[in-house]
Structure formats: C-alpha cells, structure tokens
UniProtKB/TrEMBL annotation:
It comes from the Bacteria. This is Phage tail family protein. It comes from Mycetocola reblochoni.
Length: 292
C-alpha cells in the first residue's frame, strides 16, 4: 500500500519488515491481493416487530479475518527454509506471550497496530515451493478487530499549585480549594469508543469522575498512595494499587467505568482534599476501523 510501511512484530519482539513498493528492497514482501483491511463486520441481534420491520436489540463487532500474501526472496533452498521458519514464528500465537502484531506506519508518523494470529497458509513444505522465490497466502484472524494507535493520549487533573501541562488539544480543568470541580474537553480522534484507563495518586479525600452518563468514585488516598484502573483482556476492568495488589475496596459502590467515545467528550471531575503531589491521569489509545 502506497504511503504505508508494514512490519510484523513477533510475540518475542522480532520485527519482520514487509516491502510493498515495486522498488523497495527486502527479503519479505507484502504482495497485491490483500483482503480484509477495511471495516470489520457486525453481528446484529434483531427480531421481527409486530408493526413491521425489525427491532434491533444489540450488535457486536466480529473478529476480523484477513488474508496476508507474503513473498519471500532467498538466495538458495537453505536460506528459503530459514526465512520461512522466521515468518512462521513471527505470525503464530504462542502461549503466555502477546499476539503477533501487524504494524502500519504512515508518512505522517501515525503508527497503528493490529494484533493477530495466522490460521493457515504454511501447509506447503519448502520442497513444494520455490527455492529462491515463493509466496505464502496466509489466512489470519484478529480477535480485537480494530487498528489501535501506538500513541497513548493522556490528560491530567492536578491541583493548580502543581499544574501539569495538558496536551495541546485539551483544555485545563480548574480545580481550587473553593471550587473543587471542573470540566475537561477531551478529543478522541479515532473511529470508535475505546477503554479509558486511570491512575490516581494521593493525597485527596475523594474523587468523582464522570464521562457522559458513567461515573465512579475513588475514596481517600494518602500521600503517594496510588490506584490504577486498567481494561482487562477478558473484558471489564481491574483495580490495583501501585504494587499490583487488589485495590477495588478504594472504589465507591456501583462504579460504571466509562469508555472514551469517538469525537469530543466532556470529562467532569470533583476532587476534594487534594494537596501537593496529588493527581489523576486518564489515558486511552484511539482505535480505527480501517487502514488506507
């Protein structure tokens, strides 16, 4: 694809560059005929309506399936075997390790990643393929179908006496002893809603965070005490302290941890009892349906 550089990052961190331009040098080449880099499919749960038509109950995005035709250029049969094994290792999931990632780097500097694993395409042995040039038409699945930005967007809530500059597209939230509430305008440049993760560091006596209709409360934290809220791979969120221990007891009843929808959203915070060193940081990684 013109204007985008692709690499495969293996579960152990080996980076396999994929040349794509006609004159680009490289032993591994992304061939024409890639299918499945567009928007993922959607499953819709609907039933017939008594008044005609359908009533949509809910929908969910499907896992992404795509094909990845990769050519290998080798000097002889043994070199071909070594490079085939390297590509196999880079594209297969391994227990206890992160998924392989397909990384797309734009000329603008934006970098997107798609975790995936190969399900077929290596069935031929090297005796059936070319000794110096061959193409493997790989079939792959991305369990999480969106392309995620590698850059994390952060926004901070900090007392004025120890202000931390925000990103250029974020407005400063006013927090003072007399008016410990304020709103922060946050922009998600991606296509879809993504999990919001939080890190809170004391001292403060109470913090209430609201995004849209979702809210949660963090109870009192002493100086330098931390609570970290992260999205889990299985869905939902984990709440831990600074050493990795469970800290769910610090969260108020019936929390609804918000996501960050695409576009502009107001984040409202009410923090009481804050002092020097206290802060609350939100962060998210934008996600996109397609690469072009």
């Amino acid at each position: 694809m013109a204007g985008i550089e692709f690499v495969i990052v293996s579960p152990v961190g080996d980076v396999v560059p994929l040349a794509s331009g006609v004159n680009d040098p490289g032993d591994f080449r992304l061939m024409t005929g890639v299918v499945g880099f567009g928007a993922p499919g959607v499953d819709v749960n609907a039933r017939d309506s008594a008044g005609g038509g359908l009533i949509v109950r809910n929908f969910r995005v499907q896992a992404r399936s795509f094909n990845l035709p990769v050519g290998i250029d080798a000097v002889d049969r043994f070199d071909m075997a070594d490079k085939q094994r390297r590509l196999e290792a880079a594209t297969h999931a391994q227990p206890g390790l992160p998924y392989p990632r397909l990384r797309a780097t734009y000329a603008t500097g934006r970098v997107l990643e798609l975790p995936f694993y190969v399900t077929s395409g290596f069935e031929e042995t090297y005796t059936e393929t070319g000794e110096r040039w061959t193409v493997f038409d790989l079939t792959a699945t991305a369990p999480k179908p969106y392309w995620r930005d590698t850059e994390t967007r952060d926004f901070a809530i900090t007392p004025p006496l120890e202000g931390v500059p925000l990103l250029t597209n974020l407005a400063t939230i006013p927090l003072t002893a007399g008016a410990p509430s304020g709103e922060l305008t946050v922009t998600n440049p991606g296509d879809v809603a993504v999990p919001l993760e939080w890190e809170a560091v004391g001292p403060f006596t109470r913090a209430e965070i609201t995004v849209g209709g979702d809210r949660f409360v963090i109870g009192a934290l002493t100086s330098a005490e931390a609570v970290i809220i992260r999205a889990s791979q299985a869905g939902g969120f984990t709440v831990q302290d600074g050493s990795g221990g469970d800290a769910y007891s610090k969260i108020g009843p019936a929390p609804r941890f918000p996501s960050m929808p695409a576009g502009v959203r107001q984040v409202r915070a009410t923090v009481t009892g804050q002092a020097s060193g206290s802060r609350i940081t939100g962060r998210f990684r934008p996600a996109y349906r397609s690469v072009f």
